[in-house]
Amino acid sequence: MKSLKIKPMVFPFLLIFLCLQILSVTPVRGQGIGTPKLVVSSVYWGANPMAPLTASPGDEGLTLSIVVTNVGDDFARDVKGTLKLQHPFIHEYYVDGEARSAESIGKIAGDIAAGRSFTLQYTLNIDQNAKEGVYQLSLELTYRSARALRETAETVPVDVPIWRGELHIQSVSTNPPKVYPGDSQIALTVILVNSGFGSVNNLKVTLNAQHPFKRSSTGSDESYIGTVRPSQVAQVRFLLDVSEDAQPGNYPLEVYAVQDSNKSLIGVFSFTVAEKASFRIVEATPTTVRSGDSGVTVKVKIRNEGGVKAESVRVRLMAGNYFSGTLSDLLGTMNPGEERTAFFLIDVDGKAIPGEYTADLRVEWTQDGVYSLNDTLPITINVTKLELLSMAIPAAIAILALLGVAAFLRRRRKTTS
Known about the structure:
Elements: H1 11-24, E1 38-45, E2 62-70, E3 76-84, E4 89-90, E5 92-95, E6 98-101, E7 104-112, E8 117-126, E9 133-145, E10 151-162, E11 167-175, E12 186-194, E13 200-208, E14 213-215, E15 222-228, E16 233-242, E17 249-259, E18 262-273, E19 279-285, E20 288-290, E21 296-304, E22 310-318, E23 323-326, E24 328-334, E25 339-348, E26 355-367, E27 371-384, H2 388-416
């Protein structure tokens, strides 16, 4: 076997070639260890991020969603989020049937890959007395990296908003549309609108009815509504009576919102009491009748002392069981200041006990061509006993008249014969 002989002049070329090969080899880097990093990327009320809810004082069982995102370059293992609670947020749980409040709520998210997110959801109640604003809660996140056994814990702030509702009076109406002194069972309808960003919960609306107004019955000056959400309209209905002595004009009425023990003014509106005709008895004759009388004409003059016209005026004498006959008279239209006389034909029961009787003179009329109104005026009737002497005089006159006729006829016969 022949040995390979390399010429001396070849060595420089081989050396250069080997150096180039060594330089062309890319060194292998050592593979680095990834690190997870968790951040809160979103906070909203409700379970649907596309339709978030608004949280308001008094809300119960509302879901707070906190989105945690891994912005690191490795898995975050065994992720757990603990939300530390403070006023006005409450989480209730029960032990042996007894309600208790938790200071914090823990939720497990499991493993979160790099670039992925997980939504932690907490069920909360909000105190009724909470004020509107943004509250900052602390969220403690604990997790491990894929290669490190040591647990990492960090606390991040979470901004949680609370909105309050804001109620306003939108409109007010009454049935009937026009209200007069003495009217009762007036249906007052108030339309409320929530123009705030939050809901109004556990709402009861009350009306502060003062003289000349009063509630028609127990509870007719309040109404329970419940929840009014943002932009929602609510209707409240009250029943009122108006005092007979109410003066015509505009009266301020206050509407209040009551939520648990909190009472706040919603608004004030003007309630109009219209003027109605007012009547007064000017004169009544006779003032005395006798038991057993029949067909007694009683005249009652009345005057319209109001400032408005009364149409189709009818007067009724409501005198009780001892009086009968024609007890109604139509007077027609009475202008302001006008006087008219009503005529009644009265029969007095013979069993009527002598004395003073107070009767009602009921005046009925229409106003503005639509509204039927009435008023009652007291009138006194004196009843006296029918005396025997008063009966004897007419009888004696009748007897004398008969005797006179008989004597005249007898004298005439004698003259003829």
